[in-house]
Design a protein that fits this description.
about 55% helix, about 5% strand, globular
Length: about 725
């Protein structure tokens, strides 16, 4: 890799007619999976206790799995273990280990919160704000998002940092990968208005015409062009919000811990409006703290990266986190979709520490408004996590980093495993019902062997497994009510308990449909279908009812088939499977119900609903303001000289095409322009891809904008 040299600092102010600062980049090569691991020492006290912490987690997981597996074996061993029963037992052991592993982390998190232990990286969240000496870039990548809401969130965060008095230490970059030409120009219009409103020149906009490697490529391209001027970068998502004091404290934590490459916050969900997003917001706020606290306790400096709302040391990222392009065809080959886990693993391999600070607060995000939108996002994440199968054997990765990758894979593989487990149970029941049992096994026997099952023992195994899933929710409740401030912010213990019970019931009904969606996603990926890069519907979006009917028909038919199969055996079996069957059969009504908007949060109100943080209030206030309405991209550029000047100025930074490379949409657009007599005719003839090509070519763009109008002929 090239030697990294830091270039001179950026000027303290920019010019109104420039969207970007002077370039000063860092070399960042494509990553390799065969590099050896570098070692850096963990802080002494943590280094001594971490092995015991991890041993506790894994011994507890093993003991719970062995105990449950032994009881399950007693259930299926009567009359001998058949092939189907052996497969069922194997699936049960894997799934139970998965549940037990999560349970142990939650159990540890409960005691961490109960005893108010400080994390591996303690950050004072209540003291006076520290002074900063480093420079930080705030990066907001976007892809075809609503510019109005995007700029509202960006402005709210900018003002929040300015209120701390540390605004001179931060520059803000809106990094656009937008492909829709109208949204592209709308972004520029909104960005000019933002700079004018803030009276600031630390706000920069860059549009990337080549969307190689999506978000990870967007960040890497910024590092190559501007990274050398900054010590740190805070990476955001289009729906991210962060409080000003949280941002300042994160930067100070990086300054105080020079061995740290990344510090991940725990984003809290806000702005939920539908019942489905309310459930996600409530669950994340109630159960998230004990899970995050437990993970941070035993992860230590080998924590993980969630892709946003985290601060990263630019030099560490440039040195170590360049992503490889995986061999083979999509969906397993190509650029890695879920890049965050891999980037954290590569930086840890290079000796840098990765920390999580769940107790810091002041970090927010939004969630999809319906089960269909959640499943669509999950489909992309599923493909990205399954790509990690190619990263797992990479040389030199820390074993905890490999475990993070394996956990991400398992979070999707377990869905079809649960489905297969249920189908195996049905097949065994159907076999026992319709196939005559063997009363006299081979060999001499005076008495017949009566096949029998122990329903009481089976019920105990089921109850114990459900306990591992439900007990963490009760522990989260106890942890919350043990803290007076948290208890008051949720408006009382009774209301909180009612919300937990309601959420548990609705989540249990939704879970079977998610199992079908995730199983379908895994199957599609194994069959070679690529997820692509779709625009995500945010919390203010609404789902059309016919889309719910169409996409939830598959879970419904699965539920009917499963219910009829269970009833063919016996009514008790149908009752036993009723939680899954009911959730699937009523998938469409549940989809309609959960996608509907709620006027009030009700039982699912969180502290952020009852006492909204200032940055959230400001972002929502700005989003409620009147939108800047624009005409089409070309029409807007023709009528707005200032916008055209900004747009053409930004194109000087665009990448040039290689010699001999033909831009087909641009060539087609030029041909159409030659055949048109006026501007209006050209606008009518050009499609979106051709307009986008024109926006990226100054000469062609000026040519079409200078065409006479229809009335001037």
């Amino acid at each position: 890799m090239d030697t990294l040299k830091k270039s001179p600092a950026l000027p303290q102010s920019g010019t109104v007619d420039r969207f970007l600062p002077p370039e000063s980049g860092l070399a960042m090569e494509a990553g390799r999976l065969d590099r050896p691991r570098e070692r850096r020492r963990t802080p002494g006290s943590l280094e001594r206790t971490l092995p015991f912490r991890r041993l506790f987690i894994f011994i507890g997981t093993a003991l719970l799995t062995i105990a449950g597996g032994h009881e399950m074996y007693d259930v299926v061993k009567v009359g001998g273990v058949t092939v189907l029963e052996a497969i069922l037992l194997a699936f049960f052991l894997v799934l139970l280990a998965w549940v037990a592993f999560s349970f142990m982390s939650a159990l540890v998190g409960f005691f961490v919160l109960l005893t108010r232990r400080r994390g591996c990286l303690a950050i004072d969240r209540d003291g006076p704000l520290p002074e900063l000496s480093s420079r930080t870039a705030m990066l907001l990548p976007t892809y075809n998002e609503d510019p109005h809401h995007l700029i509202a969130r960006l402005r709210a965060m900018y003002e929040a940092v300015a209120a701390t008095g540390h605004e001179a230490k931060f520059d803000w970059f809106l990094l656009s990968d937008t492909t829709d030409p109208d949204i592209w120009i709308h972004e520029e219009v909104a960005f000019i208005a933002l700079r004018r409103a803030c009276g600031a020149h630390r706000l920069y906009y860059r549009h990337r015409s080549d969307n190689t490697a999506r978000k990870s490529g967007n960040i890497a391209a910024w590092i190559r062009r501007f990274g050398a001027a900054y010590d740190h970068m805070i990476v955001l998502d289009a729906d991210s919000l962060m409080a000003g004091d949280t941002i300042v404290r994160l930067v100070h934590a990086m300054e105080a811990n020079p061995a740290a490459a990344l510090i991940q916050t725990q984003p809290v969900i806000v702005n939920a409006r539908s019942l489905f997003s309310r459930l996600q917001q409530f669950a994340g706020r109630v159960y998230g703290p004990i899970i995050a606290a437990g993970n941070a306790w035993w992860h230590g400096p080998e924590s993980n990266y969630w892709g946003h709302n985290a601060i990263i040391r630019v030099r560490a990222f440039a040195e170590a986190a360049g992503l490889p392009e995986l061999r083979g065809r999509k969906p397993f080959g190509g650029h890695i979709l879920s890049h965050d886990f891999v980037e954290a693993a590569l930086m840890r391999r290079a000796g840098w520490a990765i920390y999580m600070v769940p107790a810091l607060g002041g970090s927010f995000e939004e969630v999809p408004p319906s089960i269909l939108d959640f499943a669509a996002r999950d489909r992309r994440w599923c493909q990205g996590n399954l790509q990690h199968l190619a990263v797992l054997p990479a040389r030199g990765l820390h074993w905890v980093s490999r475990l993070h990758l394996l956990t991400g894979i398992g979070s999707y593989i377990t869905a079809p495993m649960w489905l297969i487990f249920l189908i195996l149970g049905l097949l065994i029941s159907l076999q026992a019902h319709f196939i005559r049992p063997e009363y006299f096994p081979k060999g001499f026997s005076l008495f017949p062997t009566w096949p029998q099952q122990d329903p009481v023992l089976a019920a105990w195994v089921f109850a114990a497994t459900m306990g591992l899933l439900i007990v963490p929710k009760l522990l989260a409740y106890l942890a919350l009510i043990s803290q007076r401030a948290e208890r008051a912010s949720f408006a009382g213990t009774g209301r909180l308990l009612g919300g937990i019970l309601s959420e548990t019931l609705l989540a249990a009904l939704i879970a079977p449909s998610m199992m079908i969606f995730q199983s379908k996603a895994v199957a599609e990926i194994l069959l070679g279908r690529d997820a692509g890069w779709q625009v995500q519907r945010r919390s203010d979006g609404e789902v059309v009812n016919r889309e719910i009917y169409r996409k939830l028909a598959v879970p419904t038919w699965c539920g009917l088939l499963m219910g009829l199969s269970a009833y063919a055996v016996s009514l008790p079996l149908l009752l036993w499977m009723s939680p899954v069957v009911i959730g699937l059969v009523f998938a469409v009504p549940l989809g309609l119900l959960t996608s509907s908007r709620l006027r009030t949060a009700g039982l699912f109100a969180t502290p952020e609903d009852n006492h909204p943080p200032q940055v959230v209030l400001r972002a929502n206030e700005l989003a409620a303001c009147a939108r800047i309405e624009i005409a089409g991209a070309l029409q807007q550029l023709r009528r707005d000289a200032e916008l055209l000047n900004h747009h053409l100025g930004s194109l000087s930074h665009a990448g040039r095409r290689k010699f001999g490379q033909v831009d087909v949409p641009l060539a087609t657009a030029r041909t159409k322009i030659d055949e048109c007599e006026c501007f209006e005719e050209a606008v009518t003839w050009l499609d979106r891809s051709e307009v986008r090509a024109l926006l990226g070519d100054p000469s062609a763009l000026q040519r079409v904008l200078q065409m006479p109008r229809d009335g001037q002929l």
